[in-house]
Amino acid sequence: MDLFVHDGLLWKHRAQIKNLIPTRILNSILLGFPKIYQHKLINFETNMCPTTFEKFLFELNSTLGVAGNIVECGTARGGSCAIMANYLKKIKSNKLIYAFDSFSGFHPDEARQEENQLTRRPLVFAFKKTGLGYFQKKMEVLGHKDRVFPIKGYFQDTLNIYLPESICFAFVDCDLSNSLDYCLEQIWPKLSVGGKILIDDYLSPFYPGVKKIVDNFILNKRSTLTSKIIHSFNCLEKLA
Ligand SMILES: C[S@@+](CC[C@H](N)C(=O)[O-])C[C@H]1O[C@@H](n2cnc3c(N)ncnc32)[C@H](O)[C@@H]1O
What we know:
alpha/beta, Rossmann fold, 11 helices, disordered N terminus, binds S-adenosylmethionine
């Protein structure tokens, strides 16, 4: 049963099934019955599989003794954010999460450019089935209103103003190259020594730009970091 749920047809097509449900109806069902978020097929609405998340939380946990708070760049409907917040609540950590997203999908110019040059995926209309209001209500019904702070807007307009002064852990899951590059450059000076940045899709065939940007970043900062690949993440730890 578990195999079927995680790796079978239903798991594979869950995003398409979800897309068939009108957003308003989907939102009111989920917000009205928040227990549904916990179902294995919903998994708080992240596309990451539960085994990947165990590794993710292990890395997050390893930075909780480090100064600073947590940043997420690329929140969408708040799946990974909710899972991080659940974990912090469970272990009674008082770390806060700053969740950055346009809450309306990719920047159209960047999406178009990447569609033409790097991937055959349609990007311009991706991740539009979200919104700041939905995200805030979701955090409220899950009991994370006082821990999670959403910052709406394109990273290029928000990070330099709203990033916390000190960061222990950052999850960067924004798919597109220019935005990823910008996030890494903004986060790095504020990341505490011993802190980590976890970048999603490092090995994804759908977003080949991610690996190029991360490899280049590692090359430029090689004396101050270590890097390890975990599933399709790259995890950078700041050494100095
Ligand atoms: C893959 S989704 C994030 C999924 C989420 N981390 C999860 O696992 O539930 C990528 C998100 O990055 C956001 N994004 C990408 N580039 C952005 C930019 N320049 N500014 C703001 N948001 C951006 C998109 O709006 C989208 O919601």
